[in-house]
Write a structure and sequence with these properties.
alpha/beta, 23-stranded mixed sheet, binds 2-acetamido-2-deoxy-beta-D-glucopyranose
């Protein structure tokens, strides 16, 4: 009887409470999602198109990004990279069975609603890449005892870092990076023993990096750098983070020495300490990082040599030590590291030769040792694996020639070897590499001729100046359709300028000054419509200045001085309205300098050394000078033609108006 009663009661209870509760829950959650939609889509109203009202009690479970449990309650919501413009409404607090909440990359703004405190089943709370702002409301998180992932990366939160999350016993992944959080890292973060990922990078944090973080024994990845500005240095205690794989403390104002204890991090894969003010030597103990693949200590104040013990770092693939004050040799073991892909050592004081084995591992992609005092030859096997893309050896004391092998290195995109003591012929292959966009070999002592076959389609910058290159300028230069800068000056080029080479629509600067070139300036130069600077000075060019040059609408610098050009200056050049610097001096030009406004800005020195040329200010010139020309004391380089254009009508008007009195 008593059992029966209970049974009846239970049924009544079920009928009156559970069912209505359930059915209203169906209705509620559809309604709640529609409220979410209208708040989140904001005034522009796009996104979540398939979230529509329906009479079906389970319709909302098939909304995109929504999944439900067996009771048709929403357990997972994932709205990522949808263009939304609104905010997160308080109604979200009603979806209290939510386990996974990912609302990422949606441009949502405003504050997080306090009602989220109701979401006590949450395991994943991911609101990364939005514009949420204000203080992060720690209160909403205290009750989320199941929480494993909190990702607020790249929002607009400010104020101190939340300490409420310290009580969360399951928190594995904590990312608060990319916000405006300020103040110190709370000591209490060392209590989140479950933590595997800690991302506080890209905030405005200050104070010391707490040594107590060393207690996070499960921590695998720690990002503290960028925009943060800490006091003091790297706590030596961090050497006991035995699970650590990634330590990134770049660009956060670290001082002092690199603690030797970091060498204990047997599992470390990546050590990024670049752009700080670290001093002292590179600790040889770092050779204990047997799993290290990426080491970046660049842009610090480190001194001393590369430790010999680093030969044990056989897994290393990236070494950045640039912009320090390191010296000594680049040890030969560097050439034997089996996995090395990137070696950047520029702006140090390294001396001696590059390891002869460099590149023989077949994996080298980037080599930059610029601005050191390295000597000896360029190692021949740098591109053995066919992967070398960046080769920067500039501003050293390298001798010998460019290894022929580099001419077959199809992967090369950048070759910068200027300012060395290199000689020999430039390998023909170099000018036929399919991907290369920059070749800087200037300021060496290369000799021989350029190859007649040239097909480096991607080439944008070619600087060969200040070498001893001989022979003709190859017509095949005209194949370089992407060429923007061509610098051949100060060599021993001879012969005529091939008219075929001037079909370069992107060419902006050409300098062939100080060679032995002869013949006429090809009128085809007019096809290089992007030219803004031409320097053909100090050659033996003859004939007349082609009037087609006037088609170069953006030409601002033209230097044809110290040649043997004859005849008149073409009047068409008056149309070169962008021309700012003109030098035609020391030729055999004759006749009169065109009398147009454009030419008024040029000083007499632009025309000097042409005995038969009548420059504008020459008093003894034959007659027929225009009035504007006669008025010319102020015909300096900086005399604005605009001013003249503006004044001339005014003066004329004055002359026409009859005197008043
Ligand atoms: C939550 O997401 C995780 C993966 O991040 C997944 O394994 C789990 O099944 C999801 N849970 C629910 C309830 O959707
Ligand atoms: C969320 O959806 C995006 C695509 O919209 C997908 O790339 C991502 O993996 C999803 N995340 C989860 C946790 O399901
Ligand atoms: C977010 O806003 C920025 C700037 O207004 C815009 O460039 C970006 O495309 C937006 N993202 C989405 C997903 O709408
Ligand atoms: C929290 O959840 C309860 C039960 O589902 C609900 O009655 C209440 O309105 C929710 N509170 C907020 C602030 O959403
Ligand atoms: C958060 O969501 C974004 C977008 O789906 C994803 O790229 C990111 O990995 C997620 N964060 C975590 C910790 O899973
Ligand atoms: C984000 O915060 C920064 C700095 O406080 C501010 O300049 C910017 O306008 C904010 N953007 C939004 C969308 O709130
Ligand atoms: C190098 O990496 C491999 C896996 O990539 C690993 O098995 C090995 O133990 C690592 N350490 C050394 C010293 O080779
Ligand atoms: C290289 O050494 C010279 C002389 O010892 C010194 O003046 C210079 O600052 C050093 N350069 C760098 C980058 O350390
Ligand atoms: C290059 O210079 C070296 C001296 O550094 C010299 O022995 C060699 O003959 C030169 N080679 C050429 C081709 O000029
Ligand atoms: C030409 O290059 C050499 C070698 O780099 C250099 O010493 C010399 O100063 C350079 N000449 C000019 C005029 O720049
Ligand atoms: C450069 O090379 C040329 C020809 O190979 C030679 O005559 C000249 O002396 C060399 N100049 C220097 C500075 O080595
Ligand atoms: C062309 O090269 C010479 C020699 O290096 C240099 O003096 C001149 O300024 C360059 N011309 C232009 C227009 O830059």
């Amino acid at each position: 009887m008593r059992n029966f009663c209970i049974c009846i009661l239970l049924q009544v209870y079920l009928i009156f409470f559970i069912f209505p509760a359930c059915s209203s829950a169906y209705g509620n959650e559809l309604e709640v999602l529609l409220k979410l939609k209208s708040a989140m889509t904001g005034p522009k109203g796009s996104g979540l198109e398939d979230w529509k009202d329906s009479s079906s009690p389970t319709a909302h479970c098939s909304f995109s990004g929504v999944s439900c449990d067996d009771d048709s309650r929403v357990v997972s919501l994932n709205v990522s990279y949808t263009p939304l413009y609104g905010f997160l409404p308080p109604d979200i607090g009603l979806l209290d069975r939510l386990v996974n909440l990912t609302i990422s990359g949606d441009n949502l703004t405003g504050r997080l609603p306090m009602e989220m405190a109701n979401l006590t089943s949450l395991k994943v709370f991911n609101i990364s890449n939005n514009l949420f702002n204000g203080k992060f409301p720690g209160e909403i998180i205290v009750g989320m005892t199941e929480l494993e992932v909190l990702d607020t990366y790249n929002n607009n939160f400010s104020g101190p870092l939340t300490t409420e999350l310290v009580s969360l016993k399951n928190l594995r992944h904590l990312c608060l990076g990319g916000n405006y959080f300020s103040g110190p890292i709370p000591e209490s973060y060392s209590e989140i023993q479950s933590l595997e990922f800690l991302g506080l990078n890209g905030n405005a944090l200050t104070g010391k990096v707490p040594a107590s973080l060393a207690r996070l024994k499960n921590l695998k990845k720690m990002y503290l750098g960028y925009y943060n500005s800490f006091e003091g240095g790297i706590p030596p205690e961090l050497g006991s983070l035995s699970s650590l794989q990634i330590l990134d403390m770049a660009s956060c104002n670290l001082h002092g020495e690199i603690p030797t204890s970091l060498g204990l991090l047997k599992n470390l894969d990546t050590l990024f300490l670049q752009v700080n003010r670290l001093t002292g030597h590179i600790p040889p103990e770092l050779s204990g990082l047997v799993n290290l693949r990426g080491l970046d200590l660049s842009i610090n104040e480190l001194v001393g040599e590369i430790p010999e013990s680093f030969s044990r770092l056989t897994n290393i693939s990236l070494i950045h030590l640039f912009k320090n004050s390191l010296h000594g040799p680049i040890p030969s073991f560097i050439g034997d590291l089996p996995n090395l892909k990137v070696l950047q050592l520029w702006e140090n004081n390294f001396t001696f030769e590059l390891p002869v084995n460099l590149g023989r591992n077949g994996k080298l992609r980037e080599l930059d040792v610029a601005t050191n005092q390295l000597t000896g030859p360029i190692p021949r096997d740098l591109c053995k694996g066919g992967k070398l893309s960046t080769l920067i050896l500039m501003e050293n004391l390298f001798t010998g020639s460019i290894p022929e092998q580099l001419g077959d290195c199809k992967s090369l995109t950048k070759i910068r070897i200027r300012k060395n003591l290199l000689n020999g012929t430039i390998p023909a292959g170099i000018l036929n590499l399919p991907l290369v966009y920059m070749i800087e070999v200037n300021d060496n002592n290369f000799s021989g001729e350029l190859p007649s076959e040239i097909s480096a389609d991607a080439l944008e910058i070619l600087t060969l100046y200040n070498n001893s290159i001989t022979g003709k300028i190859p017509p095949a230069l005209g194949n370089l359709k992407n060429l923007q800068t061509l610098s051949l000056e100060m060599n021993r080029f001879s012969g005529e300028l091939p008219s075929e080479s001037f079909d370069l629509p992107k060419l902006s600067t050409i300098n062939i000054s100080a060679n032995n070139l002869s013949g006429e300036i090809p009128s085809s130069i007019a096809r290089c419509t992007s030219l803004s600077s031409i320097d053909f000075s100090r050659n033996n060019l003859s004939g007349e200045i082609p009037k087609e040059i006037a088609k170069l609408r953006i030409l601002s610098t033209l230097n044809l001085s110290h040649n043997s050009l004859t005849d008149h200056i073409p009047y068409e050049m008056c149309g070169l309205t962008s021309l700012f610097t003109l030098d035609l001096s020391y030729n055999n030009l004759a006749g009169k300098v065109p009398s147009c406004v454009q030419f008024l800005i040029f000083h007499d020195s632009s025309f000097a050394g042409n005995p038969n040329l009548c420059s504008p200010s020459q008093v003894s010139c034959p007659p027929l000078l225009s009035p504007v020309q006669e008025s010319g004391q102020a015909r300096g380089k900086f005399f604005s033609p605009v001013l003249i254009v503006a004044i001339a009508p005014f003066v004329t008007a004055l002359l026409l108006v009859p005197p008043r009195c």
